[in-house]
Amino acid sequence: MPDWLSIAVTFPNGRYHGHEWPPSPARLFQALLAGVMTGRYRERWEEASPILEWLERQPAPVIVSGATHDAKAYRLAVPNNDLDVAAREWRKGRPYDASLLRTLKAVWAREMGGGEGAPHVRYLWAVEDAPEDWMARIRALADCLHTLGWGIDMAYADTALLGEPEVRQLVGERWLPASGGETWNVPVKGSLEDLRAVYERFKNRIGAGGVDPDTRPIVYGAQAYRREGQEIRPWAKFSLLRLDSDQPLAHEGRDAMVVAAWLRHACAKALSEEGESVDWINRYVHGHDPDGAPGQRMSFAPLPFIGHPHSDGRIRRALVIEPAESQGKAAELLQIKLVGEAITGDGGKGGCRLAMPEAQDSVLKLYVGRANVWRSVTPMVLHGHNALRGKLSIHKTERLLLEALEKSGYPARLVENIAFQPAPLWRGSEGARSIRVPQHLAHWPRYHVEVRFRETVQGPVLAGIGRHCGVGVFAAWK
Fold this sequence. Notes:
Mean pLDDT: 87
Largest sheet: 7 strands, antiparallel
Low-confidence stretches: none
Number of strands: 26
């Protein structure tokens, strides 16, 4: 198991003015280079430069950041580069004070939370067998850091090699490299040489021919990041209509797996018509991939009617959901292709027509909103037995629930509290044992679950080994 190189940055003033949070890996790289090229720190260049070259070759790091909040905005009077106004006056022989060319610039800063002296942001790279002199070089480089962000954002850095258990226990928001999400700049091979060339161009930007504005770095990569536990799962939304009319269909709530099967069959057919391969559809839609990564497939979530005094738990809406790592192209296509289509199960049994829900659908918002507390509407199916010597074990059940949440994308560090029971948690919904599940899941325990997260979590929230077939669907509890 590899160790993790940690560069932990602290802002003594508790403020950061950069436009992105956490600071991008490219911004850290530039700050480390600027630090070692400042004053007498240049004496460390020979031992620091190989580390910078190593960093630019590494994959994008995992980032762990502390809590922040937006400070009150303020404005500064700064020079306005509009000398043509002054030039026109001077050309006409009239005096003009160029210092009057001022404009107001709005400034926003982030203020840090956490204890005094605690690192505010930490960058983590997986490393194998790092020699001691290599760590000494990294410490020498990190010791040169003096600012990160604007020139007023004083900062210092500490380095360490952390084991996997230590990394798991780190507290804070985790930002993971992903295939889609918010994009930040990262160093790539050649970034160091490019930044040094930028500095030389900046020093010589004013010459006989005027001012050379070409002083920006151009060699860097763009890496998408996603916040752990805040994954955006692309989805398509549908309301259900009767096959023979435009009247809403209200399907029996305990048969969510049946509606999920209709959706799965329709999605496979639609994607096949678009030219997708049989192997891809079997893996991504049907989940028939024994060697595939768990969870890398579509989920089908019938949505019982809840959150209203007259809730009856019947299914009138549904979601087709892609995993967080996807680009959402399948969901986008299916949203267009399936609206207005009649869908049925294998052999043409049952079925409905799909329509677009209303824009302000209050029930749908319960399933796709943001909240700290989420309650299951259809029960979670656990992946192991929770009995000890023939009796229910609270400890085993809680452990299995936390493991199930972890496998579904919600690590235990995000969970503040968890409770479970066989009885329903929403008015109109069914008890855990009343909900039908596929035959291969029938022998596993299942419960209704309430999860309180330490942070707000973005819906839709699905958990448990039945989450791909309509069971284990949660709604936000306000």
